[in-house]
Amino acid sequence: MQALRKSKIKKGDTVVVITGRDRGKTGKVLSVDLGAGQVTVEKLNIIKRHTKPNQKVKQGGILEREAPLNISKVMFFCPVTQKPTRVGIRSSGDGRRTRFSKKSNEPIE
């Protein structure tokens, strides 16, 4: 798979999963990996990891953690309309670029 150069979804955004096992659930983006084209979303796509005790994890056993999702499986969640939406980019006169929600036409903070 080819690496992405840029993404309209950033760390800290609230997103909705649009396909797969967690469809319809929302969460906050913890990390974005453009090289692999994946995002990790808080409390979604939970996997079980069988771990041995080591210096970092004193108590071994079955640990649950978030696994990355493909970036195409999530959509930005608009706080105004409370629905998933696409993200657009506007350029202002002084050269600054701002993201905005395509459904509500409001800027994204």
List descriptors.
6-stranded antiparallel β-sheet; single chain; mainly beta; 109 residues; two-stranded antiparallel sheet
Notes on the structure:
This protein is mainly beta and 109 residues long. It has no helices and ten strands. The strands form three sheets. A six-stranded antiparallel β-sheet has the order 6-3-2-1-7-8, with no helix packed on it. A two-stranded antiparallel ribbon has the order 4-5. A hairpin with a 5-residue loop joins strand 9 (87-91) and strand 10. It is elongated, with a radius of gyration of 17 Å. 14% of the residues are buried. The mean pLDDT is 94.
Give the helix/strand layout.
Blueprint: E1 14-17, E2 26-33, E3 38-41, E4 46-51, E5 61-66, E6 69-70, E7 74-78, E8 83-85, E9 87-91, E10 97-101
Antiparallel strand pairs: 1-2, 1-7, 2-3, 3-6, 4-5, 7-8, 9-10
